[in-house]
Amino acid sequence: MTTTPTTDEILGTFTDFFxxxxxxxxxxxxxxxPPSDPVLFxxxxxxxLTPYLEGRPHPQGRRLVDVQRCLRTTDLDEVGDRTHLTxxxxxxxxxxxxxxxxxxxxxxxxxxxxGFGIPRERMHVSVFGGDDEVGPDHESLRQWQELGLPVELTxxxxxxxxxxxxxxxxxxxxxxxxxNPGTPPQGTPTTDPxxxxxxxxxxxxxxxxEDGGLQPLEQPCVDTGMGLERLxxxxxxxxxxxxxxxxxxxxxxxxxxxxxxETPRRLVCDxxxxxxxxxxxGVRPSPTGRGYVLRRLIRRALTTLWRDDPSRxxxxxxxxxxxxxxxxxxxxxxxxxxxQVLVEEERRFGRLLERGRRVLDGPRFDGPxxxxxYRYLHDTHGLPRDLVxxxxxx
Length: 394
Ligand code: SER
Hints:
The chain is α+β, with helices and mostly antiparallel strands. The protein has twelve helices and nine strands.
C-alpha cells in the first residue's frame, strides 16, 4: 500500500487475504454473547466460536475469518490514552484443527509486511518462554527467527486464557514500533511502550479444568485477534486511535461543541461512542449487569462534561455522530431511539446529583467522610461512593 489506506480498505485487505487462503467469512455478532455464556459482553472474536474451538464441527469449515465488535471494561481506567477503547473491533482468523500455529505466524508476517507494507525493522514479536507447567514455545521462536524478527520471551504475557477455566494456550504477539519515524526502534515490547501490540496469535491447545489441571485438546486450534483501531492507527501513521478516520466526525464535531482538554475529550468520545453501540445492540441503562456498564459509561462521560460546565447536555450531540457510529457498526436501530435513551439517562443522573448535593450540604458531611457515612449515603439516598467523591470535589 503506497497511499494512506482508509479503514474500509484495511478491512478489505484483511478479509481478502484470508479468503484467498481458504477462510470462510463468518458474520460478526453483536456485543451480546449467547444466553448460555456467563460473560456480560463479547470480549474477543473467538467468543462465539468457543464450541467449535472445543471440537464441534463448524458448518462453514475449518478455516474462518471475521470482524467482531467487542467490549472490554477491564481497560476502563486506561481509556483516554492513545490506544485503549471500551468498544472496539477485532479482526479474527481461525484454524479449527486445520493448519498449525507456525503457518498462522507466517501468514501474519506476510499480511503485515507484504499486504500492509510494515517494514520488518518496525516489528517485534513475543513468544511464550515456558513456566512450571508448559515448556517454551520453541516452534514459534524458530519460525520468527527464520523470518528475521526480534523475539522477546515472556511467561504470563504470552499465555492466553478465556477465564479461570476453559480454553487456553501459549500465544505469540506481534508489535509495531510507533516512535517518531526518525527514531530507530529501541528496547523490547515489555520495556518500551512505543511498541504497540497489534496482533495476537493463540495456539489454543489446552483446557484448564476446575481442579486447576491442564488437559491437552484433541484438536489443537489457532485463534488470532487483531484490534482494528490500533492497526488503522499504525497504518495511517497516527499517534492515537482518535486521530484515525474512524473517529473523524468525532474529532471534527466535538471540540466546537464542548471545549475539553485532550484526555477528557478522548474519554467523552470513547464512552459516548461505546454507549451508542451498546444501546444499538439493545441494552438499556439499569442498576445491574450490562445495563449498569452502559449506565457507568454515560455517567462517566457526563461527570467529565459537567465538571467545567453543568449546562452541557447530550441533547446537543450532533446527529452525524449517532448516525456514523450506528452505520459503522451496521446496527439497525434508529438514532432518535438511541438519543432518547442517552437523554433520559442524563435526566435521571441530573436528578440524582441534585438530590446528592442537597444531602451533602447538610452539616453532618462537612468534614472527611467515614465508611459509615458512605454506607448511609448509598443505602438511604442511593448515592454511590464514586459519585459522592465527585460531588465533593471543589
Ligand atoms: N483470543 C485472543 C485475544 O483475545 C485472540 O483472538 O487476544
